[in-house]
Specification:
CATH architecture: 3-Layer(aba) Sandwich
Strand order of the largest sheet: 1-2-3-4-5-6-8-7
Strand content: 25-35%
Number of domains: 1
Structural class: alpha+beta
Distance between the termini: 21 Å
Helix content: 25-40%
CATH topology: Aminopeptidase
CATH class: Alpha Beta
Length: about 200
């Protein structure tokens, strides 16, 4: 399945009466990165300019789908959704909602819109979700949609640092680890829970 198959000529992924899911673009950088820093437990890492720019670039140029969620009525940026592993048996869903719009049913509605369109385009019946073990609200939301926990893995921060270590000098890595020792210590023990979710009809 090609990424282009998911979008119309205006880069719209899907829409309903309330929401529009569009392809992530340069115009979304400020809102997207503000949300990324807000939801991240590694806020200090974004003070490292290389980390900030690396993160934005990796989302913008990702081979998977990164989507911006907007209110159809007002055009207000509400959050972001991701659809990864497009050719896998289980595509992976990710979601973050702007704080002012959380706990209003927007997340559940957006996930349902995403799954419906993904199923129409690719025939996907099952999805996978990765949620940090301390994100109780998201865990509960996905469980209400029928998600079942399947596995656990290390945090994204640890994964990104392993990639960055390949391009940084050893002294730069050690300096960052000393400066942000509390962050490194916390993230090494934090887990991501993996859930499976059947597409809703």
């Amino acid at each position: 399945m090609r990424i282009e198959d998911y979008f119309d000529d205006n880069d719209v992924f899907a829409e309903d009466k309330k929401f529009i899911l569009k392809k992530l673009s340069e115009n979304d950088k400020e809102d997207f990165m503000k949300l990324q820093m807000d939801v991240s437990s590694i806020k200090k890492a974004y003070e490292i300019n290389d980390f900030y720019e690396f993160s934005w670039s990796s989302f913008l140029h990702d081979k998977d789908l990164n989507l911006s969620l907007f209110s159809k009525d007002t055009g207000v940026y509400l959050g972001r959704l991701m659809l990864k592993n497009l050719s896998a048996d289980k595509q992976e869903i990710g979601i973050d909602i702007v704080e002012d719009y959380r706990r209003k049913g927007i997340g559940s509605a957006a996930v349902c819109l995403l799954m419906k369109h993904a199923k129409e385009v690719s025939g996907a019946d099952w999805f996978e979700i990765r949620i940090y073990s301390d994100n109780i609200a998201s865990i509960n939301m996905f469980k209400k949609l029928g998600a079942v926990e399947a596995d656990r893995e290390d945090s994204e921060f640890i994964k990104i640092m392993k990639v960055m270590e390949k391009s940084l000098r050893k002294d730069e890595i050690e300096r960052s680890k000393r400066k942000y020792s509390d962050l490194f210590g916390r993230e090494e023990g934090r887990k991501i829970l993996l859930f499976n979710l059947k597409a809703l009809d």
